[in-house]
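Quick entry between incubations.
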Amino acid sequence: MQCSTRASRFAGQAGPGKRFATTSGNPVPRALIGSTLRECRRALGMTQARLAAEAGISASYLNLIESNKRNIGGSLLKRIADILGVPLDELDGAAERRLADDLGALAGEPLLADLHLDPDDTSELASRHRGWAHALVRLQRAWHDRGRAVSALSDRLNQDPFLGGAVHSMLTQAAAIRSSAEILMYIDDLEPAQRQRFLAIVSDESVRLGQAAQSLAAFFDGAQTGTRSMTPVDEIDDFIIDRDNHFPELEETATDFRAAVGIVDDCRESALARYLHDTHGITVVTRPTAGSTATGPRHRASFDAESRTFTIPESAPRSTRRFELARLAVQQFRQGRAIDAALMQATQLSSDAARHRARRVLSSYLAAAVLMPYGPFLEAAQKSRYDIDYLAQRFGASFEQICHRLVALHRPGAAGIPFGLMRIDAAGFTSKRFPLPQLAVPRHGPACPMWAIYQAFLVPGTVVRQLVEFPAGDRLLFIARTVEKPRPAFTAPRRVVSLMLVCDALYADQTVYGDGLDLSSSAPVVPVGPGCRLCVRRDCLYREEDPIINA
Amino acid sequence: MSVLIVEDEPHIVESLSFILQREGFAVSSAADGETALGLLHAAPPRLLILDLMLPGINGFEVLKAVKSNPALATMPVIVLTAKGQARDRRMAEDIGVDGFVTKPFSNRELVELVRTLARG
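Done. Structure below.
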C-alpha cells in the first residue's frame, strides 16, 4: 500500500485536474511510473536483478525504467505489476482518478449544495487523504442504498393489508357489476322488475367501486416506490427463492453420488472419509481445540488443496463432522460440475463474493441431499408428521440440518408441506431466511418480538409452537427452537441461535406441532405483525417503534 | 340438480342465483362458513360454489372440511377468488379443489364450469 500511495501522490501532482470530469482523461506521465515501481519493489524487499529476471528483461533495462529514463507500458507494465502484486490501475493512477471522480459526484449532491464544494479539490483530496476520500464515497453509497431500502420497505407496506383489502373489494364489486351487466345484456326475456333490480345492483356497485378506487388513490398519494438495495446475501436469497429452494439436478447428483460411493441406507462418516481418501487422496485430520480462541482463525473445517488434508475442529459435533465431510466429498465428486452448472443459472449473482457464497450454499444443499435422500426423507417426514426430533435421530443429523432439508421438499408431484425458515442469533441478526408468500422474513432489522423465534430464547432447547395471525388475516404455525453451537473456551460466550420453521396454519394438522391446538380459523391466536416499522397494529402493547408509513 | 353458493357479497349471490336458476339448477346460498357447513351436512348439494374470503370460518377451511369428509369428498367444488393469486390457487389445489373462477368472472364461464362439473 505504501507504494500505491506514492503512485497516487504522483498522479495527484501530475494530473492538474482542473475539473473532476476531465481528470480521468489525463494519463500519469510515464516518467513517474518508474519511481513508483522502484518503491514497490523495495517495499517487497526484492532485488532489481530478481524482478528483471522474473519479468524477462535485463537488469540494466529495468534500471533505466526505474530511473524514469525509459518509458514503460502495455504488457510489460502489466507483467511487472503482477509480479509486484500491485493492481495496474494503482500504478498508472487510474484508481486514484476514479476516486476523484466519485468525490466529484458527491460534490454534486443536492444535500451538500450549500457547502459549495469545489470539484477542483477532489484530486488533491483523493491523493493526500486517500482513506478519508474512500470513507466519504463509501458513506455516500451506503446513504443511497439506505434510501432505496426505505423506499422498498414503504413499497412493501403499501402492498400489505390495506392494499390487499382494497383490491379484493374492488374485484368483488367488479364481479357483481359484470355479472349483473351480462344478465341485462344477454337475457332478452327479463321481466321489468328483474331488469330494474339488476340495474340497481350495477348502479350501487359502481358507486362502491368508485369509492374504493378513490381511497386507493389517496393511499398512494405521496407514496414512493424504489428498488431494493442489493448485497451479496440479498442476491443469494433471491436466487434461492427464485428456484423455490429446490434443485432437481443436485438431487439427481446426490443419487449418483450415493450409488458411486456405494451408500445404501445411512451415509456413514467412515464411508465419506474412505471415499475422500481412496478416490481423491484426501486425509481427514482432527484439529485439537486446545489453544484456540473465539476470535482465532481455526474454528471452521478447512481443506488444504496442496497437502490434500481436510482439517475438522475437535469440538465439532458428530453431525457437523459428517456434514463437513459430505460437503467436501460432493465438491470433489465429478470436479463439482453439478454445483458449477447450478451456479451458471444464477444470473442474479453479480459479484464474485455472491458467487462464492452461493457455491457454499449449493454445496451444503447437495451434501444434505446425500445425507438425507429426497424420497426416504420425505416419506419419513410425512410418516412422523414432520417430527424434527425424530427425523434428527433417524438421519443422524442435527435439528438445524433437518430444518434446512424440510425447506427443500418442493419436488413437483412429491412435495412436502411448504415451510419457511428463519435463523437469528442472540443479537437478533437474521442469518438465514427462506420466506413464504404469506411471511416476509425481514432482511434487515428485527421482526415482531411476539414471534416464537424470540420466545424460544426463553426456553433454550425446547420447541416452542405458536399459532399466529398477521394483520392481513394470514394464519401461520410457528415452530421454533434454539440450538447451541460448540464454543472453544470458557471465555467465549455461549453461542445460541434460534431457528424457526413456518407453515400455513392449514397444514398444521399434518404435523405433530398442530396436535392439541385449536386449528379452526375462528380460534383465538397470537396477533403478530411483520415487525414494528411495517406493522399496522398501532396500539400494540409490544410496539417500540413508529411505523414508517402513516406514523 | 342443486348448487350451494357460499359468498358474503349479496349482489353476487343474487346474480349467480338468477343465472343458475335459469339453467335449471336449484340454488341455495350461505353468507358465511358456519352456515355453509351446517347446510352441507344437512342436505349436501350436487355442487358447491365457494368464495375464499369469508368472514369467520374461511373458504379454505370449508373446502378442507368437505374434502376430508368421505361423505362429501366427491362433491365438485368451484372456488371463487378475488385475489386470483398463485398461492391461493396452489393452496386450494393442495386441498383438492375441482375448479377455479377468478373475479370478475363472466357468467358464461361460470355456467359452463358448473355444467361440466355437475355432469361429471
